[in-house]
């Protein structure tokens, strides 16, 4: 679109998510017809050598080593928070007070109290926000949402979610520092609950409605690890594994499990929803497929019963599938990085339409509330309302 409006981005952080977001900003207008066009105006991190190299690699016009300086700049429209979790609240509140749009990596904060403070700040300022729960933008998960909305699953009975990895099994893996802050309780806020299950919770409530109560158990398998910054052996405060039962407001039952000690699982993120009319199943490690079982026609309730009854494996690459008309010809898949481009496109379209792209900060705060209820239940051994 020739008359696009520039949207000057100030990105904080240069790690995994900084790369994913920067790629999205660079690519989004090449594939989506949008009114706004991101401009890589500035990036920020404390390590000057690292952030200078990052800026050169991704094409940022400038860089800063102090996020407060970045927020104060008049030529920055939106702040993108890709920094570790313990910095989210302070940066977001300052950015809101400066009148900046804010995009923030998940989880929104370390605690519910921080999330509430962030939400209050952005709502008082009236600035647009988005939390990067990018899995909503996987076309197969977006198609699952469409099937639920169309009534093809019907009255829900069961929801199941797994999120398994194996990268922290070795006892000699340290905690803390730039690379392993997710193992440091003070920085991360929690372990797999906030890092992995937050994704599962956000998706579950998006597909199946609010979670009403939870009963949880957590485990820390390695009790002490060397801290990268101090070199000292310190207690490990994060949860290595978490499992919880859930009751949804619609009466359905849920089971959730996450672990970083599932040998052989790298990013195994699955969901299954069973209902009166049918079922859906998704596996992120085979993300171009959605499995669907049709039991009854949603419009008539009439049972489907013939020699072809069974699970249908849908290759989600056709133009009629969510997001796919923007990409390649049917049969050609897209990857992990495209989910961030899809999310970026939704945010920019929301600015043009005046309808915020979800999840906004209030949705992120809701997910934080459930995470906190899960951890509280694990501490007390009791069912906890959300």
Supply database-style keywords.
2 domains; six-stranded parallel sheet; Dihydrodipicolinate Reductase, domain 2; globular; alpha/beta; 386 residues; Rossmann fold; nine-stranded mixed sheet
Task: Tell me what the structure shows.
The chain is built from ten helices and 17 strands. The protein has 386 residues and is an alpha/beta fold. It folds into two domains: 5-134, NAD(P)-binding Rossmann-like Domain (Rossmann fold, 3-Layer(aba) Sandwich), CATH 3.40.50; 135-385, Dihydrodipicolinate Reductase, domain 2. A hairpin with a 6-residue loop joins strand 9 and strand 10. Helix 4 runs parallel beside helix 5 (112-125), helix 5 (112-125) packs antiparallel against helix 10 (361-380) and helix 8 (192-208) packs across helix 10 (361-380). The mean pLDDT is 96.
Entry summary:
With 386 residues, the protein is an alpha/beta fold. It has 2 domains: 5-134, NAD(P)-binding Rossmann-like Domain (Rossmann fold, 3-Layer(aba) Sandwich), CATH 3.40.50.720; 135-385, Dihydrodipicolinate Reductase, domain 2 (2-Layer Sandwich), CATH 3.30.360. 33% of the residues lie in helices and 25% in strands.
What is the count of β-strands? 17
Q: Secondary-structure element sequence?
A: EHEHEHEHEHEHEHHEEEEEEEEEHHE
Which CATH class of the largest domain? Alpha Beta
**Chain-averaged pLDDT:** 96
Q: Based on CA inertia axes, which overall geometry fits?
A: globular
Question: In percent, how much strand structure appears in the residues?
Answer: 25-35%
CATH topology of the largest domain, by name, is Dihydrodipicolinate Reductase, domain 2
